[in-house]
Amino acid sequence: MEWKLTLKRTTYMQWLISYMPVFFISMASLILIFFMILFKVSENESLNANKLYARQVQQTIDTTFRLSEQLVVQEVISDDKLKQFLTSAEMPGTLEMFEMSEKIRQLIFTTPLVDSIYLYRENDRSVFGANGMFTLDSFGDRDFIQDALDGKVIGWSDARKFKEFQGNSSAEKDVVSLAREVPGFTGHHALIMINVQVSAIPTWLKSTIDSDISEFLLKDKLHNDLLASRKEPSLEKSPSVAIKSSYTGWVLLSQLRNKHLFQQLSLFTYLWFSLAVLAMMLGMFWMRHSIRRNYRPIQSILDQIHEGYGQRPGNELDFIQSALHTYAEESRHYQSQKSETLFQRRQAAVNDLLSGDRVLQGSLWQAEKQALECPIEEETLSVVVVEIDRYHEFKAEYNPKDQSLLKFVITNVAKECAEQNGFPTLSAWVGDHQLGILVFIESKHDAWEESIRGFCEQLRLWVESQLAFTISCAYGPEMAIEAVHLSYKSAQERLGYKMVLGNNRLLNMTEILAVSADTETLFYEDVRKVRKIVIDFRGGRGEWLPALTEVFSAIRARCPQREDIRSFMTYMQIQFTRDMMELPGDIQVYWKSHVLPRMMELIEQSELLGEFEGRWVQLLQAAETHIGQMKEHRHERELVSRIREYIAEHYMDYDLSLTTVSDHFHIPAKKLSRIFKEEYGEKFVDVVALTRMERAKELLEQSDEPVQEIANRVGYYHSISFIQAFKKLTGVTPGQFRLQIRQ
Question: Where are the transmembrane segments (predicted)?
Answer without folding.
Answer: 12-39, 267-287
